[in-house]
Design goal:
This protein has a domain of about 230 residues: FAD/NAD(P)-binding domain. The model has no long low-confidence stretch (mean pLDDT about 95). It is of the alpha+beta class and about 400 residues long. Strand 1, helix 1 and strand 2 form a beta-alpha-beta unit. The chain has an 8-stranded mixed beta sheet with strand order 6-5-14-15-16-13-17-20. A 6-stranded mixed beta sheet has the order 8-2-1-12-19-18, with helices on both faces. A 3-stranded antiparallel beta sheet has the order 3-7-4. The structure holds 8-demethyl-8-dimethylamino-flavin-adenine-dinucleotide and P-hydroxybenzoic acid.
Length: about 400
């Protein structure tokens, strides 16, 4: 087998990269080790920045997003007794959309299987090889158990945090990594109940952070800060709803409860690996970096990476110019660090550490955001997504 760009991993990063390259006449093959059903059912992110929405629409995979996605003009910041709305269009001229990552992935998979390049599910033993040479290849075993070799011009490692690509880059390029495991976790639920607020509510509470989000007019997505050692078996639906009711309490407002259809505990990590390239192997998305979800950045960062990477590869493979490929890692990392900082800052502002000084500092910052347009604008600009080359 031969292709121009061999793509490892069919998450949002790999699927969108394949789509963007196809539109510019570049051949790809996408290799995914899970099944289509598994990839389409993984519950993850839910907030899309304006740039992400525009990219999906321009790539011809935004029809359902435009019909079913919920445009949001802001978020609510809450601390005891106060719920304050930030108006994003007024603060920075941009907004965000609620549309689940599961739906983004379904739309990209459907487009790829309809008229796109090959997308092979349930492959195994995937190994990028000879990425320092001009003729790299990917070895893998196909779904029928037959060993295969995919010869490529370039390999894209979009295989997420636990993939096989990053170790090859780190070892080959003598790279470095930065990592922090935050001392908090989120217990996340999906519930068949209409959202209790029109837009997301980020709530500081003495018991810990809580976030009210949604997936549709009839499905709520809610999160509760818990200790990372908590076990999901110890959290009955009633215990979860009680915790959420306490942390969102506000006079004259009520949290609607309903059947919980999914629940899990998510660890929170900041991680950056640099450089994002070795030879002809390029990393994008969670393969290179992880942010805690408080800033809603993970999926958006993956989309920003592959937008830059697609431009770089088109220039290289159609015009023979390597300038954008040579600067890809530095340009992507500048944005990665901005998002890593913003996600860390949102995380630090909302999560209870148990320390009273921390609590007063957090409340002071929240009051500032609720009273100063300058402070609110900084949050709004980062939350809705800074320009691509930031
Ligand atoms: P993905 O989505 O992890 O996709 C990587 C794909 O590569 C496949 N793969 C391989 N394929 C072939 N060979 C191998 N050796 C392979 N190893 C792995 C995997 O099966 C998978 O299909 O990475 P991508 O495309 O970079 O997309 C990034 C986003 O998925 C991620 O940043 C966000 O979902 C992060 N994230 C969240 N972000 C938010 O902004 N808000 C959230 O609420 C939120 N919740 C989450 C999350 C990430 C989670 N993970 C990774 C634990 C909740 C969870 C549980
Ligand atoms: C979500 O809806 O899953 C979500 C929204 C905002 C966040 C994190 C997760 O900051």
């Amino acid at each position: 087998m031969r292709t121009q760009v061999g793509i490892i991993g069919a998450g949002p990063a790999g699927l969108l990269l394949s789509r963007l390259l196809q539109l510019q006449g570049i051949d790809t093959v996408v290799l995914e080790n899970r099944s289509r059903e598994y990839v389409e059912a993984r519950i993850r992110a839910g907030i899309l920045e304006q740039h992400t929405v525009q990219t999906l629409v321009d790539a011809g995979v935004g029809d359902r997003l435009q019909r079913e996605g919920l445009p949001h003009d802001g978020i609510h910041l809450q601390h005891p007794g106060v719920r304050h709305h930030l108006d994003f269009p007024q603060l920075c001229g941009r907004r965000v959309w609620v549309y689940g990552q599961t739906e983004v992935v379904k739309d990209l998979v459907a487009a790829q299987l309809d008229d796109g390049p090959p997308l092979l599910f349930e492959v195994s033993d995937v190994r990028p090889e000879d990425v320092e040479s001009d003729a790299p290849r990917i070895r893998f075993t196909d779904a029928d158990g037959v060993p295969q070799v995919l010869e490529c011009d370039v390999v894209a490692g979009t295989d997420g945090f636990h993939g096989v690509s990053r170790p090859v880059v780190t070892a080959g390029a003598g790279g470095r990594t930065w990592e922090r495991t935050h001392p908090y976790a989120w217990l996340g639920i999906l519930a068949d109940v209409p959202p209790s607020a029109d837009e997301l509510v980020y709530s500081w509470h003495p018991d810990g952070f809580a976030l009210l989000s949604m997936r549709s007019p009839s499905v709520s997505r809610l999160y509760l800060q818990v200790d990372p050692t908590e076990r999901i078996e110890d959290w009955s639906d009633d215990r979860i709803w009680d915790g959420l009711t306490t942390r969102f309490a506000l006079d004259g407002w009520e949290l609607r409860t309903g059947p919980v259809t999914e629940k899990s505990i998510l660890p929170m990590r900041s991680f950056v690996s640099a450089p994002m390239r070795h030879g002809r192997l390029f990393l994008a998305g969670d393969a290179a970096h992880i942010v805690p979800p408080t800033g809603a950045k993970g999926l958006n960062l993956a989309v920003a990476d592959v937008t830059l990477l697609a431009q770089a590869l088109v220039r290289w493979l159609t015009e023979g110019q390597t300038d954008l490929a040579d600067t890809y890692s530095d340009r992507a990392l500048a944005r990665v660090w901005r998002s890593t900082h913003f996600s860390w800052w949102m995380t630090s502002m909302f999560h209870r550490s148990g320390d009273d000084l921390d609590a007063e500092l957090q409340l002071s910052q929240l009051r500032r955001l609720c009273s100063s347009e300058t402070a609110a604008r900084e949050l709004a600009e980062n939350y809705t997504g800074l320009p691509l080359d930031t």
